[in-house]
Amino acid sequence: MKTLLLITSLTFASHNALADIIDIDNAANTMDINALTQYSQNTSDYNNAYANYRLAITANITGKQELAQQSLTHAQHTLENILSQQESADTQALLAAVYGMQIAFDSSKGAKYGMKAAQLLQQAKALEPNNPRVSLVSAINAFYTPSVFGGGVDKAHTLASQAIALYDQPCDTICWGHAEAYTWRGLAKQEQGNLTGAQQDWQSAVAVDPQYGWAKFLLNQQAAKQ
Description:
The chain is mainly α. It is about 75% helix and about 0% strand. It has helices at about 1-10, 20-30, 35-40, 45-60, 65-85, 90-105, 110-125, 130-145, 155-165, 180-190, 195-210, 215-225.
């Protein structure tokens, strides 16, 4: 169930200030594989990796497994190459998310990529303690990590709250993830049995980004159960 949540959630991207990121996120929100493919080829460096990351998840959901793996691997190699030349908290955080998706696609890769993802997030936190995307990816990582191994929904809730607070800072470069942070905190609240709090967070996600499809899906799903 949690693997399905991860694959589904990351298809619906939140957008903000950077033009290329906005385009990529809009395409991900509408599951536009053609547009994502174009962005994955026409952008460069970080944006190229981000486009491939979103393309990988969208392709996976639409049953294009080969494209999904190719895109995710391309994102991984691009980010690893960037980090071999220069440290960057955003690059480290996105690569940690990519490693997480590699595990989601193939659980046998957990031993290989799980520790790498944790180390990247530690490095990113040390480099930029107030980077909201570092806290967001850390929250996602905690959500899928058992509490006995340092994760758990309580920690995910705390980290998502931290990310939400950090998104209040002005952003003019890489700005994705604000609505996602509310959505993940809502999921943590749902796991904790706080359905009202979960619904409030998903409503906040839509308030941040009215086009954010995953929070809308979760709200509709909850409404159907009532």
